[in-house]
Amino acid sequence: LDGSLPGDYGFDPLGLGSDPEVLTYFQQAELVHARFAMLGAAGIVIPGLLTKAGILSVPDWWVAGEVAIKDSGIPFWALVMVQAILMGWAEIARYQDYKKPGSQGDGSFFGVTDGFKPVSNGYPGGLFDPMGMGKGDGLKTAQQKEIKNGRLAMLACVGFVAQHAATGKGPIDNL
Questions:
Q1: Domain locations along the chain
Q2: Roughly how many angstroms between the first and final C-alpha of the chain, as a whole number?
Q3: Band of the pLDDT at 156, cuts 50, 70, 90?
Q4: pLDDT greater at residue 113 or residue 140
Q5: 163 annotated binding-site participant
Q6: Which of 38, 107, 121, 142 gives 20 to 30 Å between its CA and that of 153?
Q7: Could you say which protein family the record assigns here (predicted)?
Q8: For the chain, percent of residues with pLDDT exceeding 90
Q9: CA 30, 64, 88 angle in degrees (round to 5)?
């Protein structure tokens, strides 16, 4: 680790980043997990706040998925299969882009991939960057902020789960 990556402070006591190819994979994995954790933390806190304020009436985060499909009339395994197919397509495309950076915009899947030219590996461009924020001097700062907030969100999600396991309540109810 030489400080060139976002969030890289040179701390690697186990030497996990000594192989450059493995380090690139770990960087992409951390980025994906950070993004999911940021969405997850927001998806736990915001509905909890809005329910507490009386604006929404939604189930607690630890039962929301069960409640949503229980009375929907959609068979559970059909939902699992559709989710697996859709996420499988997205994850295969992401993995291919990791192996061959820039390949997201190559070819066409019924015109779906035409606007997916990435700014760099892990940072989509085209349709996903309509305001051009992935270009210019602010990109490094934005990447640094994203990984710092993502690491914080990963810790927050672990804390939410631990808090629920210990108290049976969510983060808003424990304030």
A1: 20-167
A2: 39
A3: very high
A4: 140
A5: yes
A6: 121
A7: Belongs to the light-harvesting chlorophyll a/b-binding (LHC) protein family.
A8: 35
A9: 45
Residue 7 one-letter amino acid: G
Q: Is 94 annotated as a binding residue?
A: no
H/E segment holding residue 145: helix 138-167
Angstrom CA distances, 135 to 21, 117, 138, 142, stand at 25, 13, 7, 11
CATH class entry, domain 20-167? mainly alpha
Q: Which has more pLDDT, 66 or 145?
A: 145
Q: Tokens for 131, please give them.
A: 């305001």
Phi and psi angles of residue 125, each rounded to the nearest 5 degrees, phi first? -125, -150
Higher pLDDT, 61 or 111: 61
Asked if residue 35 belongs to a known ligand binding site, the reply is: yes
Q: Is 146 annotated as a binding residue?
A: yes
Confirm or deny that 174 is annotated as ligand binding. no
Do residues 172 and 43 make contact, with C-beta atoms less than 8 angstroms apart?
no
Q: What is the model's pLDDT at position 71?
A: 75
Q: Does pLDDT of 125 surpass 80?
A: no
In sequence order, what are the beta bridge partners of 120? 123
